[in-house]
Specification:
Helix content is about 65%, strand content about 0%. The chain starts with 15 loop residues before the first helix and ends with a helix. It has 2 helices and no strands.
Length: about 60
């Protein structure tokens, strides 16, 4: 039986429109808050995935 986990199922990339607003200084505080919260969630997803991969590698090399 293969244990599988979806890869990055909840990523919320920053859109081109959002990048243009940030670069142009036309973002509201609320828009920036949403963008940064999404980036934080993406980071946490990446950390979870990395931990998952490390655990799989360790378990495969130790026979667990």
């Amino acid at each position: 039986m293969t244990d599988t986990k979806p890869v990055f199922p909840n990523l919320k990339p920053v859109s081109d429109e959002q990048l243009e607003k940030i670069a142009g200084g036309s973002c509201t505080a609320e828009e920036l808050t949403v963008i940064f919260e999404n980036l934080k969630e993406n980071y946490e997803t990446l950390v979870d995935f990395t931990s998952y991969v490390i655990e799989r590698v360790v378990n495969s090399t130790t026979g667990n």
